[in-house]
Design a protein that fits this description.
CATH superfamily of the largest domain: TusA-like domain
CATH topology of the largest domain: Translation Initiation Factor IF3
CATH architecture of the largest domain: 2-Layer Sandwich
Strand order of the largest sheet: 1-2-4-3
Structural class: alpha+beta
Number of helices: 7
Largest sheet: 4 strands, mixed
Order of helices and strands: HHHHHEHEHEE
Length: 230
């Protein structure tokens, strides 16, 4: 039986992780030119080959799936999970060598994370988000990043679906809701009363959500949608 695409990708990822770790450890432990050459050959051959194959074939297949059923920012949220984990491990004050490795790893992840935001998200915001929405998001970010703010004062994201094709709106909204932790919420902005969405949420997520109108037309509807505490 032929392996599924997802199984094959996961298996190859595991193999790449193992080879990368083994070859990097061999060079770090010996410092030999031969080990470094072996590592370089692996990076420029198998690892880059994998990356190029994903760019050419896997990502074009995934992109319409993300638009229909996924959440475009999900991979960035995974970055944040790794960043939080690295910070927790550094704050545990491990031995100096482990701490050095963690700091260097965190620096690499954070640098790449910022680069992705600045090359992909910020141009979209500049070109397509109104000045009013930009100001609102900025104010929310400032409030949410305040280290003195209480736990209940964290910023709530705004999901403006007015420019999203109608058939894609509900999958996007459901994906956003499903990404919330208990007690979290987001602000939905729409160009009509999203009452059909309320009924769909009631049917598919009964008892799991809170729904509060913040603005009710005639041009714009804003609704706070939250996940109930367990």
């Amino acid at each position: 039986m032929t392996a599924s695409l997802t199984d094959a990708v996961r298996e190859h990822h595991a193999e790449l992780r193992r080879k990368f770790r083994e070859k990097a450890d061999a060079w770090l432990q010996t410092g030999s030119p031969e080990a470094l050459q072996d590592l370089a050959n692996f990076l420029s051959g198998e690892l880059l080959g994998h990356a190029r194959a994903e760019e050419a074939h896997l990502y074009p297949a995934v992109e319409p799936l993300v638009k229909a059923w996924g959440r475009a920012t999900a991979t960035m949220s995974i970055d944040h999970e790794f960043i939080e984990d690295y910070i927790r491990r550094i704050q545990a004050w491990p031995d100096p060598e482990t701490c050095r490795e963690l700091v260097l790893g965190l620096q690499a992840i954070f640098t790449l994370h910022l680069e992705k935001e600045e090359r992909v998200y910020l141009p979209l915001i500049a070109d397509h988000l109104s000045a009013e929405e930009q100001a609102r998001v900025l104010a929310q970010m400032h409030a949410g990043s305040d280290p003195d703010a209480g736990a209940g004062e964290s910023a709530e994201a705004t999901l403006d679906v007015r420019a999203v094709p109608p058939r894609e709106r509900h999958p996007l909204i459901f994906a956003t809701f499903d990404s919330l932790r208990p007690g979290q919420a987001f602000i939905l902005v729409n160009d009509h009363d999203p009452k059909p969405l309320y009924y769909q949420l009631s049917a598919e997520r009964p008892g799991a959500f809170e729904w509060t109108y913040l603005e009710q037309g005639p041009e714009v509807w804003r609704v706070r949608i939250g996940r109930r505490q367990d």
